[in-house]
Amino acid sequence: MKYWLLLAGLFMLSHSNASVVGGSDSAFNYEGSRFEKGGFILHFTSNETTFSNAVKKRMVDAFFTVYPVLVRDFNNGAAKEVYFKVDTAYHGVAATGGGKVVYDPVWFVKHPGDIDVVTHEVMHIVQDYGRSVGPWWITEGIADYIRFKYGIDNEGAGWKLPEYSDRQKYSDGYRVTARFLAWIEARVKKGTVKALNTALRNHSYTADSWREVTGKPVDDLWLEYSKNPAL
């Protein structure tokens, strides 16, 4: 009898430890509103009652795939607790501030494959520039460069960087600036994006930062890029 009691006790102990070890890293209940894994927490709410469960699942998975890597690579001090809200009152694609991202549900009805909107937006949380002296186009250009490099399904969304055109300017922001940054990383100085990102977050960015990082002013870099823009 004591033998069986001992076995039963060991059985209960092993299962209790398994639940503790698995803890927040266990399989998600995607119908929930709070998700935790690896020290990161995501709160997901929606006031759109017909919002796709499949899209929600992909958004949650994208967050836990991409965000911890971006925090590791660009800002270890970034928020570990993030809030996503799908909001029928918001009309755009997405917007980010203070560790919170709001999404337009209509966008995902029209573009259900555009999951890397998540990648772009959570990079804004990692950037954490606050009242930065940097221009908007660098902020958005870096976020789209990150989408280009870290995105999990840009192809599925039909999203890509544009080919160079003489109508473009490096200050166009978003994908135009992102491609310019990708060219600099490939052809001029690897690590430029990380260095600019750090300068912006530390509020030490100036127009001279491009020269300090790459050895060349931004206008000279753009001129070289315009002559040979191949990545």
Per-chain topology:
Blueprint: H1 2-22, E1 34-37, E2 40-46, H2 53-74, E3 81-86, E4 94-97, E5 100-103, H3 105-110, H4 117-127, H5 136-150, H6 154-157, H7 174-187, H8 192-201, H9 209-214, H10 218-227
Parallel strand pairs: 2-3, 3-5
Antiparallel strand pairs: 1-2, 4-5
Which keywords apply here?
disordered N terminus; 231 residues; 2 domains; Neutral Protease, domain 2; alpha/beta; five-stranded mixed beta sheet; 5 strands; globular
Commentary on this structure:
The termini are far apart. This protein has helices at 2-22, 53-74, 105-110, 117-127, 136-150, 154-157, 174-187, 192-201, 209-214, 218-227, and strands spanning 34-37, 40-46, 81-86, 94-97, 100-103. It is built from ten helices and five strands; from the N terminus they run H-E-E-H-E-E-E-H-H-H-H-H-H-H-H. The chain has a five-stranded mixed β-sheet with strand order 1-2-3-5-4, with helices on one face. Helix 4 crosses helix 5. The chain has two domains: 28-128, Neutral Protease, domain 2 (Orthogonal Bundle); 132-231, no CATH class. It is globular, with a radius of gyration of 22 Å. By secondary structure, it is of the alpha/beta class. A hairpin with a 2-residue loop joins strand 1 and strand 2. This is Basic secretory family protein. Keywords: Signal. Residues 1-18 form the signal peptide.
Quick recap:
By secondary structure, the chain is α/β, with parallel strands linked by helices.
